[in-house]
From TrEMBL:
This is Flippase GtrA. It comes from Dyadobacter fermentans. It is found in: Membrane. Its main location: membrane. The keyword Membrane applies. InterPro entries: GtrA_CellWall_Glycosyl, GtrA_DPMS_TM. It comes from the Bacteria.
Amino acid sequence: MADQLFNRRDLIAYFVVAATGALTNLLVATILQEWLPISYKSALFAGYWFSFIVGYFLTRLFAFNARNTTQTRRQIVKFIMVSILSCLITVYGSAILYDISRQWFGTFIFLIPFSVKEVNLNKLFSQIAAMGASFLSNYVLHKQFTFRDTGFYDRLKRLLDI
């Protein structure tokens, strides 16, 4: 099972897709904090859901051989469920790690050379760490749940009487 779960091709494809989503998330959250008077957590939340859209299409196209399937609706429902969990890990994990890092180590600011842009390293590393944890849970859940017929979607439809 471990060989099937962590096969090299799927892991590399998913890593590239996830890296694109992570960079999108990081970029959107950074721009929102820079341009708008919103909180760190709100910026992370907005960045996450923007990267969600990018991530769904890229994951479907390039990871887990899900491109040629007729189960798009069920995959979207499962993808959203996994993404909600991932959002909680990313947003609240980042916020908790940020608060802990500030309390334990103080605030670290890095000035980008030859510019006036300051980078809050506590926020940056907290977000990267939480996105790493989210990556691991997403990989396993998408491979074993979202893009695989588990019977869950049919049970959910019966439960909701759809």
